[in-house]
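LAB NOTEBOOK - FOLDING QUEUE
OPERATOR: T.R.
BATCH SIZE: 2
PURPOSE: Compare the predicted structure-token outputs for two unrelated chains run back to back under identical settings.
PRIORITY: normal
REVIEWER: second-year student, initials M.K.

ITEM 1
FIELD SEQUENCE / FIELD STRUCTURE:
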Amino acid sequence: DTLTSLTNDIIHELNIPLSTIKANTAMLKKTMEDEKSLKRIQRIDDASLRLKKLYDELVYSIRKEMHIIEKERFDLKSLLEERIEIFEEQKRNPFELILKPYEIEVDKIGFEQMLDNIVSNAMKYSPKEAPIYVTFENGILTIEDRGVGMSETELLRVHERYYQADDQRDGEGIGLSLVKAYCEDEGIDIQITSQKGVGTTVTLNISKVHVGA
């Protein structure tokens, strides 16, 4: 219908300037040697990456409203290794993985976005040298960091839209709200524990979406 066509057109048009910004910042980086200018370009690049992440989440949410997104079967271990490899390319935090093969059936795109949000937060609120631990055992997926952590008050507000525990850090502000919504839709139990100055642990019980042999 008209609304669907209009939405698809807008989605397409939004992606064009994003791609242009990304391509041009990459070219400018190669030609610049001045440190101050390089830092400015990097800030533009970082901002465009955050914008792209928001764009992807917007597109996913719109398409989810317009159509029923089919669930897919896939191996959790393979997906985790693939996503973590992308984060490792940022050459920031080291990762320690303890994983086993485990087939699940969920909305895969939503699962990837949910996972990316949790891992991004773990990295954002951790020192660059601090490892991120990703472990899976007995239907429980755990993402643990040794970052700044949160107080009890901050922890109570963590799922609110636009809330950020640390106002000094850049962030999308809606990540954990989307994580919670996705988990509720899929029947995944999520628990977040944290301690100021110690770190944060996100625990996902995904046994309900397991595809048993």
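ITEM 2
FIELD SEQUENCE / FIELD STRUCTURE:
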Amino acid sequence: MRTEERMNEKTKFTVILKDKIIREPIGKNKIFLTGFHGIGAVGYLTTRYIADQSDSKHIGYILLDRLPLVVKMGDSRIQLPFELYKRKNFIVMVTESPPEPREMHLLTRGIAEWVITQGFKEAVLIGGLSDKYRSDNDDEYRVAYTSAYASTKKIFGKPMDARLTIFGPLASLLSYFELNEFPAITILPYARQFEPDTRATMIALNILNEYYDAEINIESIRKEVEEIEARIEASMKESEQKALDEKS
């Protein structure tokens, strides 16, 4: 194991990498990718889906003094709340559970410092925008980016409306990247606010394929979206029929 630490007086942020010998910073020529639970759980679902691809490799963990009290079984082992995976040109952090509120800034500041010191070329963050703010002719997603990204990268997608806000760990992470003049962009598909939105997740995955050559196979999630839509349509028809029966 190789351990890297970022510490302050009272608490500790630690990255544990499984490879014993790494001759150069892990982020060299790589893109850091992560997302959190939030609107539509788009950030979590996107990163989890990528981590579950057959060519993704689990490479390490992020530890805090107070980890969320949640673990799960997967890949013939216990999966921790914050895990790192490598796939093609990406290093992906999967957040199985949101950090405790008092650990939020420790986690996001630690991530930002680690990404910068490890030589990543940019960060791509995934979130969701409530679909109640989407107009009829609007695009399927918006983006938000740091000033360093705008000055060094090509912007794709329309910027998020200035009247809207990003909140939670995604906002904190973006703040630290902005303060450190690091190129970071957030992809924000419109999503259902109070339930996991696989269609919005599919939009995020398609964007990664289009603009980052991620080569992600989205067939399984496409089938899941089709099944969900079929259940919703059947439920709506059943409700309409019940309403007609009651009326008659």
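REVIEWER COMMENT (ITEM 2): The first helix runs from residue 42 to 51.
FOLLOW-UP: none requested
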